[in-house]
Amino acid sequence: MSENQSTNGALVRVEGVEKVFHRGTEDIHVLANLSLQVPGGEFLALMGPSGSGKSTLLNLIGGLDRPTKGSVSVAGEQLDQLSDHRLAAWRARHIGFVFQLYNLMPVLTAERNVELPLLLTHLSKAERQKHVETALAVVGLSHRAKHYPRTLSGGEQQRVGIARGIVTDPTLLLCDEPTGDLDRKAGNEILDLLQALNREHGKTIVMVTHDPHASVRASRTVYLDKGQLSNEPVK
Amino acid sequence: MPRAMKFFHLIWCNLKRKKLRTSLTLLSVVVAFVLFGFLMAIKQALAGGVNMASQDRLVVRHKVSIIQMLPESYQARMNRIPGVDFATHQTWFGGIYQDPKNFFMQNPVVPDEFLKMHPELVLPPDQMQAWLKTRTGAIVGRKTAERFHWKIGDKVPIQSTIWSTAAGSRTWEFDIVGIYDGAKKETDTTPLFFRYDYFDENRTENRGKGLVGWYTIRVKDPTQATAVAKLVDQEFENSSAETKTEPEGAFVQAWASQIGNIVLIVAAILSAVFFTILLVTGNTMAQAVRERTGELGVLKAIGFTNAQVMVLVLAESCLLTILGGTLGLGLAWLVISHGDPTGGLLPLFSFPARDLLVGFAISVVLGLITGIFPALQAMRLRVADALRRM
């Protein structure tokens, strides 16, 4: 069943997408004729059981993978038409990622981790520093800028991850189980932050989660099961 | 280039990730380049004389062996050979100053002929005059003078291993009347030269009287050197002391070749050393990339292109080898600049600037070769697969 949504103002358009993984002689059909639209400014939660294809869909939206069939466009850009090189450049400009396991560079301080996406821009060192300070201030970690990930708590590391994801002011923030590795308290702090980014800063967010407590923070939730999308939870 | 420097911090931090592993790899690279420096200096010392050899000089020695002597009377005959400008001789003295390990060459010569033959040895005119006036006079090169703190006016005793004096002693005393410098940096300024007439008068070995070690000939036209060499040997063919005449460069080369083909030996040693370093550093880089698959995936996810990730890995590899190479070459240069470690056997012991640059270039190439396979591996990583390995 496909998602019925008005196409006006859709920032993300996924149309008739199929994704098949080839493992040896076996073909694994993860997504089947899936369509989805996400308007600009929405906080969308993508829920579903393990193996339902949530992360795969997120990867397609973020340009980390290509669909076997169908098309994905974000902010008017047809991702399947872009070469690998142009897709990387597009990601650098338009996408911010937040990962379940934070995925910070252990050899860099918090501020250097946040600065990473800015290395791909033409900003001067001073300008980069300013953006980093702003991003860290937004997530409330200015006082931990010089700390390495190993000295930060899980929640703090995830906030650094979010700061890294927003430092270039991307068009879209993609979060893959952002609270999956955190306790309830830390998880709530992260969700508060994501909500604030959406409501106060107008960030469009697509969040994959299997946690109902997380999904209620979103403005809309869709459910994925066996590669198919639905507005109703899977029974 | 300045824009690329913003990635330096990331590259440097990744290099410091496993401090012990990186330090050990760096140390092995340093040692390899120290060895490179020393081998280049030894090659320069043994083969460098060839470069300094003059195009218009021939060396005439006994056909059988350099240790067989030639009659002093040959000089006049040589001077009459067409194409010869003039000839002069030297003889091996084989002296020891205080201790056998204080080796430097001492040869009796005819002063004015000798200095005319070797314009690369620069002696002030007043010291030349003093030498001509002093039968026991000797001139010494600046390197040896500084080594033993000799100055003009000093009396220097040297014990010959071959020649005795008229008084029956092996100890010969010389008056230092001059200190010469080299016209070029590479000129050997270790030998001491003293007057042949003083030597010939005082040596007692009958078989040695009137005999000299070898001749040096200046040819009028360097392009005719080979032809003149043939004429010289023809002049003394079928005599009791037949000659072998060859260009000075070939003569010096033959000396060095007694040890073996120096260039080949050095090349073989360095090839083995650098191949080992290639394996060590290559292994380090391969491990580093394997451990960081997830992180490389994150870099690609946030927008680093495949090419940029590849260049980051290559840059890390090159930084390691260039750092090690620079440290090794610097250390070698520092030690070599203190001079000949053998106490005189390698007077031309130096690290040529050209070889320093070659060494640096090798360090860059080493970095590229050791880094290319891990870099290609990093380049080919699929983002989604790499992120799963975080």
Task: Give a short summary of the structure.
By secondary structure, chain A is of the alpha/beta class. Chain A has 7 helices and 10 strands. In chain B, helix 2 (19-52) packs across helix 9, helix 2 crosses helix 12 and helix 10 (262-291) crosses helix 12 (306-336).
Number of helices of chain B: 14
How many domains make up the coordinates of chain B? 2
The CATH class of chain A:
Alpha Beta
**Proportion of beta-strand residues of chain A:** 25-35%
Per CATH, the architecture of chain A is 3-Layer(aba) Sandwich
Return the string of H and E elements of chain B: HHEEHEEEHEHEHEEEHEEHEHHHHHH
The quaternary state of the protein chains shown equals heterodimer
Q: Summarize the amount of helix of chain A as a percent range.
A: 25-40%
Mean pLDDT of chain B: 90
Q: What is the CA-atom radius of gyration of chain B, in angstroms? A: 29 Å
Residue ranges of chain A: pLDDT <50 for 5 or more in a row? 1-7
Main beta sheet of chain B: strand number and arrangement? 7 strands, mixed
> How would you write the strand order of the largest sheet of chain A?
6-7-8-3-9-10
> What Rg of chain A do the Cα atoms give?
18 Å
Helix content of chain B: 40-55%
Structure description:
The complex is a heterodimer of chains A (235) and B (390). Chain A has a single domain (41-66, 83-229), classed as Rossmann fold. In chain A, helix 6 (184-199) links the parallel strand 7 (172-176) and strand 8. Chain A has helices at residues 54-61, 84-94, 110-115, 125-138, 154-166, 184-199, 212-215; strands at residues 10-23, 26-39, 43-47, 69-74, 77-78, 95-98, 172-176, 204-209, 220-225, 228-230. Chain A has 235 residues and is of the alpha/beta class. Residues 1-7 of chain A have low confidence and may be disordered. Chain A has 7 helices and 10 strands. A 6-stranded mixed beta sheet of chain A has the order 6-7-8-3-9-10. Chain B is an alpha+beta fold. Chain B has 2 domains: 3-49 and 260-388, no CATH class; 52-257, no CATH class. Chain B contains 14 helices and 13 strands.
